[in-house]
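Researcher: I'd like a structural prediction for the single chain below. Treat it as a standalone chain; there are no partners to consider.
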Amino acid sequence: MKSSLADRAGAVGWSATRREGREKVTGTARYAAEYAPARRAYAWPVPATVARGRVTGVDTAEALAVPGCLAVLTPGNAPRLGPTDDPTLRVLQDSEVPHRGWFVALAVAETLEAARAAAAAVRVGYAAEPFDTVLRDDHPGAYAPEKVNGGYPGHRERGDAVAAFEAAPVRVDCTYAVPALHNQPMEPHAATADWDAEADTLTVYDSSQGSGLVRTVLAGLFRLPPDRITVVSEHVGGAFGSKGTPRPHVVLAVMASLHTGRPVTLSLPRRQLAAVVGHRPPTLHRVRLGAAADGTLAAVAHEVTTHTSRVREFVEQAAVPARVMYAAPGLLTTHRVVPLDVPTPSWMRAPGEAPGMYALESAMDELAEALGLDPVELRVRNEPALEPDSDRPFSSRHLVECLHDGAARFGWAERRTPRREGALLIGSGVAASTYPVWIAPSSARARVRPDGSYLVQINATDLGTGARTVLWQIAADALRAPANRVELEIGHSDLPAGWVAGGSAGTASWGWAVHDACTDLAGLLERHEGPLPAGGLTVTADTTASARQRSPYARHAFGAQFAEVQVDTVSGEVRVRRLLGVFAAGRILNPLTARSQLVGGMVMGLGMALTEHGGVDPAFGDFAENDLASYHVPVHADVPDIEVHWLDEHDRHLNPMGSKGIGEIGIVGTAAAVGNAFHRATGRRIRELPLTPDRVLAALG
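Model: Treating it as a single chain, here is the predicted structure.
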């Protein structure tokens, strides 16, 4: 019998509310630092206070005298770690200090207060060395990496872009700068580790984007079989990429538990995050666009310089988006990276696309002005038939439709004309958005119980994005069962393996495995005769073979963003009055959680445009803005009317749900739309983010 609409309220396409909402608002959802095993102790790290050098000695006498102090771990007594391909995790293994904030000791105590006091009492001696933390385009240490983040080639060239640029009748040659940015999740990085010496097992509760990967890494570092390690990441209070792989906090927590024989909780103070959990590195951009008089592009050249640490190479792939956006016979995209005495960069929401599209879409606006052409029309005229980088057909694109739909909804034809309201200058801007479609192998298990209820299990992670809810909807839909009869378990390393929550690949990857397991179980039930066995029926699915097949299609999500800003000519303050985005991101599985993700990304892009800046102090070698008082994320008063819309896009070349990732595309293009609106309002172009009052007043003269 077909279930009623009320029974199917959780099925795909409906705006189901979050499954864990009640637990979160009532405080019963437990995060990593809230697990409290018996005899739990607390740890507090000691960060290095020099920008480069080595530790010459650690005096722990005063710290050990603090009441309740159990131990102080140093490079001299910390457990020795096994091999790892991530040297940022090799904490307390030697005396080297590669950057300010590198952990040089760890205090462990009965209470959090005692651990903090003991850490403050540790006396560390250093042999400081000269350091360099300043990125510049002409740095002598810059080199061209073979690969950049995501595995992309660092250099790609089609045709002779430089010659085509020089021959073009209309040209723009512009430089842009994006500062270092920080993820700033609400929940700081935290872990509770419980080493059972008798059983030789380890249980870890970690704030992580993937408990399976944490288990694998810890197994190597501590020389344990993976089946003796359990990692739980059931609830995570945000990440934006900064928890994509294990970070030093979880290694230190395990070290402390091994050393003391006690469960240990370590929650990093926010002021320490900037130095140890990754950041979006600063990027310097040169963009050259050459076009015919009608706006047809002849050349696109995007060259990027960025920094990495001396500990581990990480190269932000900021020139990569230019390889897929617009048709041009000449295309040049390059990256150069400078190793500096800075913390190791890492992933931050839309790595590569967020800074790269700011530069490219700002340059497209400058080209439109040079041509005397509407910037929407310029983008439409350069729509490629195939992906420029690969000559593969797009599985779906619809960028032109997003531009036209967004322009109509925004009232672009009327609003693009700047105006003045007293001391306020008003203007509107537009920019395109893009993000690749990633799908990774995953596995899932589905079981029907004798009472007719269902249990679906997969080691997915919900960062607050609504993944738990959407997977539950996919399961109910594939089972053709009432949603209230379906239970979902995620966030535990003992469950069937799922990919990390990153690259906007979570739902597309996990959902495919859940869909396959539940579809197979539904088919098995149709063929089953008689009562169910006492243990029910169980089906497992693994998408490794399917997900790893190279698609003949170029798979990306696209969008268009429009912004209206006001510029106060007296104070220099820029405020965004309105943001509107239209996206083509495959089938939208839950409109409620999808809108939340897209709005959240656009708010983050607004912060990138107007307030966020992680500057490295050249005198001390650390990030000056290292807390929420100095690093300004947007607050409610900063956020205007935000409208989010999407096209009803049906893409048969993705996964069984037809879904694309939506966690990151919202931030892509926002900063360029705001910057372009500022230019239209003032007639001035600021090519360095953020658009702070000091820069605005200087530009206005």
